[in-house]
Amino acid sequence: METLQKIVVPILAVLLFLWAWEALVWVNDWPNYKMASPSDLPPAFWKFRWLFLEMGWQTLWRTVVGLGLAVLFGTLVGMIMGFSRIARDGLYPLLVGFNAIPKATLVPVISLIFIGQHDFNTVLMAFLISFFPIAVSVGIGLSTLEPEYRDILRSLGASRLTIFRKIALPKTLPEFFGALKVSVTLAFIGTNLVEIVAPHGRGLGALFKSGETNGDYPLMFAVLIALAALGILLYYAVLVLERIFAGWAERPQS
Amino acid sequence: MANLIEIKGVTHAYRTKSGPLPVLDNLNIAVPEGEFAAVVGPSGCGKSTLTRLVAGLMKPDQGEVWLHGERVTSPRKTVGMAFQNPVLLEWRTILENVILPLEIVAPRMPQAEREARALHLLEMVGLKGFDSKRPSELSGGMRQRASLCRAIVHKPDVLIMDEPFGALDNFTREDLWQTMRDLRAAEPFTCVLITHDLRESVFLGDQVFVLSGRPARTQMVLNVDLPADRTLDILYQPKAQDMLHTLRDQIRIAQGRDGEMH
Ligand SMILES: Nc1ncnc2c1ncn2[C@@H]1O[C@H](COP(=O)(O)OP(=O)(O)OP(=O)(O)O)[C@@H](O)[C@H]1O
Ligand SMILES: [Mg+2]
């Protein structure tokens, strides 16, 4: 019963939303260039199905690679900040300052520095925009580790690395995944930003732009839907990883 | 019998923003092998600091800590620790939690042997059948029992406990006193127990060290000459009552020396 409800209710909600959208366009008699209706989308998808697959793949791999780099780099920076007070005091203002820069302004800067390196630029942006939450969460998680947790192993003469591996790392996993959920969305935004803004781009963002240039409005809306689907896919992939690696942090429901 | 733990003239001060804070002042404590030393003293007098020094987690400014005839300058593998907070790792089962010290101290020990040892201890403290549960599924008293198992799983020769039963209700606490007594009978270890419960110190201790207020020194040592197989009833007998009175008075004196009155 409960699982049925979990599946049926969301599907009904989506159908209701599509119906309302269709009705809105139909009642107002809006032309396609104002707003495409859901019934225009399947033909658009079908017409460009190979492009969608190819561009979707481009967007997906760049986001995932960018996010992967963000995880590596963010964890490293977080570790440094978590273990050394001096590093924390020194790095924190830099990180906050960097994070405060609206990333859209970086697109032209990056494209100028690395002209023509479209793949590289996109991955770089996905990385730049998404490492901050990871670095901060890992740093805070490590620096707020109760000393007693450390002491259980330290009193046995365990090395710092062992303490990190056996205690600090697993203990920060819930915070890490909390940050990763934010980061995956950010990385996705970063990828699309470059794909849309950069000339001669590839990926779903570029497909969106070509729809715009050619006045193919159903295509533009179809891309939006595809982006939403891809975003959901990425988000749920993180949720699944969280279940696997930090499932213990979920309190048993009372 | 030789003294297994020897604290000789230990003086220590924490460096704080408002200058040095003297915590221990020429402290002397000696615990013979296999004996149980209970340490009581006013809140904030430096008892936890003492445990950290004995465990080798910190070095004293002055004085020496000796374990087993060796000067302690860094952590040793033959020490077990338990705190007021059971600090079990939530991502491990109870069994995996108990095994943890063996992973550090005896990396080459076969897993089956580790598990057998841990299961044996869990059974002794009354946690049989809970080995595959998560810490969050256990009550506070049960978690503390698991924490005790973890503290002694690697057969340490010194067990250091910092108010391990402090957060438990009275009945659970008394249960755990008896568990401690039985554990000691089954596998002897030398123990330093920090506590603020005088009855606990008399029930479990062979000696009770009363520390003065901060900076702490050894104000008094009480020999608890009660039989090893004590029962809770013994606490209500005149001999124990006398000791409790003495300790109570000593604590009052200790508190008087310090600003922190309770
Ligand atoms: N790392 C530290 N840095 C500075 N001061 C500290 C530090 N740890 C403890 N202190 C101070 O040293 C004094 C003794 O602390 P300690 O924890 O050893 O007392 P305690 O006897 O265990 O107290 P309680 O009975 O409340 O547990 C306290 O006044 C405390 O504020
Ligand atoms: Mg303390």
TrEMBL record, chain A:
<feature type="transmembrane region" description="Helical">
    <location>
        <begin position="218"/>
        <end position="241"/>
    </location>
</feature>
<feature type="transmembrane region" description="Helical">
    <location>
        <begin position="60"/>
        <end position="82"/>
    </location>
</feature>
<keyword id="KW-0472">Membrane</keyword>
<feature type="transmembrane region" description="Helical">
    <location>
        <begin position="176"/>
        <end position="198"/>
    </location>
</feature>
<dbReference type="InterPro" id="IPR000515">
    <property type="entry name" value="MetI-like"/>
</dbReference>
<feature type="domain" description="ABC transmembrane type-1">
    <location>
        <begin position="56"/>
        <end position="242"/>
    </location>
</feature>
<keyword id="KW-1003">Cell membrane</keyword>
<keyword id="KW-0813">Transport</keyword>
<dbReference type="GO" id="GO:0005886">
    <property type="term" value="C:plasma membrane"/>
</dbReference>
<keyword id="KW-0812">Transmembrane</keyword>
<dbReference type="InterPro" id="IPR035906">
    <property type="entry name" value="MetI-like_sf"/>
</dbReference>
<feature type="transmembrane region" description="Helical">
    <location>
        <begin position="94"/>
        <end position="116"/>
    </location>
</feature>
<comment type="similarity">
    <text>Belongs to the binding-protein-dependent transport system permease family.</text>
</comment>
<keyword id="KW-1133">Transmembrane helix</keyword>
<dbReference type="Pfam" id="PF00528">
    <property type="entry name" value="BPD_transp_1"/>
</dbReference>
<dbReference type="GO" id="GO:0055085">
    <property type="term" value="P:transmembrane transport"/>
</dbReference>
<feature type="transmembrane region" description="Helical">
    <location>
        <begin position="122"/>
        <end position="145"/>
    </location>
</feature>
<protein>
    <submittedName>
        <fullName>ABC transporter permease</fullName>
    </submittedName>
</protein>
<feature type="transmembrane region" description="Helical">
    <location>
        <begin position="7"/>
        <end position="27"/>
    </location>
</feature>
TrEMBL record, chain B:
<dbReference type="InterPro" id="IPR027417">
    <property type="entry name" value="P-loop_NTPase"/>
</dbReference>
<keyword id="KW-0067">ATP-binding</keyword>
<dbReference type="GO" id="GO:0016887">
    <property type="term" value="F:ATP hydrolysis activity"/>
</dbReference>
<keyword id="KW-0813">Transport</keyword>
<dbReference type="InterPro" id="IPR003593">
    <property type="entry name" value="AAA+_ATPase"/>
</dbReference>
<dbReference type="Pfam" id="PF00005">
    <property type="entry name" value="ABC_tran"/>
</dbReference>
<dbReference type="InterPro" id="IPR050166">
    <property type="entry name" value="ABC_transporter_ATP-bind"/>
</dbReference>
<comment type="similarity">
    <text>Belongs to the ABC transporter superfamily.</text>
</comment>
<feature type="domain" description="ABC transporter">
    <location>
        <begin position="5"/>
        <end position="238"/>
    </location>
</feature>
<dbReference type="InterPro" id="IPR017871">
    <property type="entry name" value="ABC_transporter-like_CS"/>
</dbReference>
<keyword id="KW-0547">Nucleotide-binding</keyword>
<dbReference type="GO" id="GO:0005524">
    <property type="term" value="F:ATP binding"/>
</dbReference>
<dbReference type="InterPro" id="IPR003439">
    <property type="entry name" value="ABC_transporter-like_ATP-bd"/>
</dbReference>
<protein>
    <submittedName>
        <fullName>ABC transporter ATP-binding protein</fullName>
    </submittedName>
</protein>
